Amino acid sequence: MKNVFIAAPVERALVERLEADPQFTIVDRIGDAHVLITRTINDVSREMLAKAPHLELVAQGTSGIDNIDLDALSERKIPLVHLPGINANAVAEMVIGQIIMLTRTLPLYTRQMQQGTWNRDDCATRHEMRYYVLGIVGHGNVGSHVARLARAFGMRVVALDPYVADLGETSRAHSLDELLAVADILTLHVPLTNETRRMIGPREIAAMKPGAILINAARGEVLDLGAALAALTSGRLGGLAVDTFDVEPPQRQWPDDPRLILTPHIGGGTYEAKSTAAELLYRKICQFNI
Questions:
Q1: Which is it for the CA torsion 208, 239, 92, 41, positive or negative?
Q2: Could you give the CA distance from residue 156 to residue 128 in angstroms, rounded to a whole number?
Q3: Helices marked H in the chain — which ranges?
Q4: What percent of the residues of the chain are helix, what percent strand, and what percent coil, each to the nearest 5?
Q5: What is the pTM of this model?
């Protein structure tokens, strides 16, 4: 019998599987836990882990693991399971939707219609997606899905990822500056590491094409959000879509600008992604219950 402590809200399907399995008991104290289930909202620090002297496994119900002290786990020889790529298609679909919304300025037209304005005069100045170059920072699980969908719309796709040897049909940029110079739309899909933290800041935004669109569906800390908002307000950026933030929920005032799309970290939040994640995490936990 293994005690399971659930440190963050998870899909009901996962709870039901654990409750129905006689191998597991859900407990309400981390100190009793053999298995700790977490999400990115948990700070799985050395201090948190110290409260679980019987811990045998950490199971993270998301793809990213930047919230976990991996050194502390390694020192105690506690294995970690997580779900890389589980929501890649869901995130990629949202990014394509944001691209369509911002290149066709659909939020602007929606606002005008709500205000009683019927304005079709400038619609012919908008371009179809096949006339844009999409720059992708990170060609892993999510980035490669975005690239595949973008090519279906006829977009030219260029990616920067020194850790992926074969980009397939995607063209390779050999430096961030090279990518910034060619991309009409830049989308971020890298994990949060010391290398990627604040990798897009004032200098990088200034190096982008005037009027370029910037999308962050990776981690909030990858982007200097203040610099991006300032560039949007000044007109340096032509559009900005943000799904992840340094602090969630963010505590700040937002510009009243239809070129800005804000979502509450829902990129991977589809029915299919959530239900698949619940089942897969349960199976991974069972593998360690020996």
A1: positive
A2: 12
A3: 12-20, 46-50, 70-75, 88-103, 106-114, 141-152, 176-182, 202-207, 225-234, 271-287
A4: 40, 20, 45
A5: 0.91
236's tokens? 């340096």
Report the C-alpha gap between 261 and 240 in whole angstroms: 6
* Residue 264, both tokens: 């509450």
d(CA 193, CA 5): 27
Measured between alpha carbons, how far is 146 from 164 in angstroms, rounded to an integer? 15
Per-residue pLDDT of the chain (290 residues; tens, 9 = 90+): 899 999 999 999 999 999 999 999 999 999 999 999 999 889 999 999 999 999 999 999 988 899 999 999 999 999 999 999 999 999 999 999 999 999 999 999 999 999 999 999 999 999 999 999 999 999 999 999 999 999 999 999 999 999 999 999 999 999 999 999 999 999 999 999 999 999 999 999 999 999 999 999 999 999 999 999 999 999 999 999 999 999 999 999 999 999 999 999 999 999 999 899 999 999 999 987 54
Structure tokens at 147: 């690239």
Which residues are known to be catalytic?
Answer: 219, 248, 265
Distance CA 124, CA 120 (A): 8
